[in-house]
Amino acid sequence: MVNVAIIGATGYGGVELIRLLGSHPEVNLAYLHSESYVGQRVCDVCPHLPWVKAELRPLDPEAVARECQYALLSVPAGKTLELVPKLLDQGVRVIDVSPSFRLRDPTLYPEWYKFEHPHPELLAEAVTGIPEWHRERIVSARLVAATGCYTAAALLALAPLVADGLIEPADIVLDGKTGVSGAGRTSLKLAYHYPEADEDASAYSVGGHRHLPEMLQGLQALTPSKVGLAFAPHLVPMTRGILLTAYLAPTGGAAAETLRASLARRYQDELFVHLLPSGVWPHTKWTAGTNHCFLAVGTDRSTGRAVLVSALDNLGKGMAGQMVQCLNVMLGLPETTGLGMPAAYP
Amino acid sequence: MVNVAIIGATGYGGVELIRLLGSHPEVNLAYLHSESYVGQRVCDVCPHLPWVKAELRPLDPEAVARECQYALLSVPAGKTLELVPKLLDQGVRVIDVSPSFRLRDPTLYPEWYKFEHPHPELLAEAVTGIPEWHRERIVSARLVAATGCYTAAALLALAPLVADGLIEPADIVLDGKTGVSGAGRTSLKLAYHYPEADEDASAYSVGGHRHLPEMLQGLQALTPSKVGLAFAPHLVPMTRGILLTAYLAPTGGAAAETLRASLARRYQDELFVHLLPSGVWPHTKWTAGTNHCFLAVGTDRSTGRAVLVSALDNLGKGMAGQMVQCLNVMLGLPETTGLGMPAAYP
Amino acid sequence: MVNVAIIGATGYGGVELIRLLGSHPEVNLAYLHSESYVGQRVCDVCPHLPWVKAELRPLDPEAVARECQYALLSVPAGKTLELVPKLLDQGVRVIDVSPSFRLRDPTLYPEWYKFEHPHPELLAEAVTGIPEWHRERIVSARLVAATGCYTAAALLALAPLVADGLIEPADIVLDGKTGVSGAGRTSLKLAYHYPEADEDASAYSVGGHRHLPEMLQGLQALTPSKVGLAFAPHLVPMTRGILLTAYLAPTGGAAAETLRASLARRYQDELFVHLLPSGVWPHTKWTAGTNHCFLAVGTDRSTGRAVLVSALDNLGKGMAGQMVQCLNVMLGLPETTGLGMPAAYP
Amino acid sequence: MVNVAIIGATGYGGVELIRLLGSHPEVNLAYLHSESYVGQRVCDVCPHLPWVKAELRPLDPEAVARECQYALLSVPAGKTLELVPKLLDQGVRVIDVSPSFRLRDPTLYPEWYKFEHPHPELLAEAVTGIPEWHRERIVSARLVAATGCYTAAALLALAPLVADGLIEPADIVLDGKTGVSGAGRTSLKLAYHYPEADEDASAYSVGGHRHLPEMLQGLQALTPSKVGLAFAPHLVPMTRGILLTAYLAPTGGAAAETLRASLARRYQDELFVHLLPSGVWPHTKWTAGTNHCFLAVGTDRSTGRAVLVSALDNLGKGMAGQMVQCLNVMLGLPETTGLGMPAAYP
Question: Is A326 a catalytic residue?
Answer without folding.
Answer: no
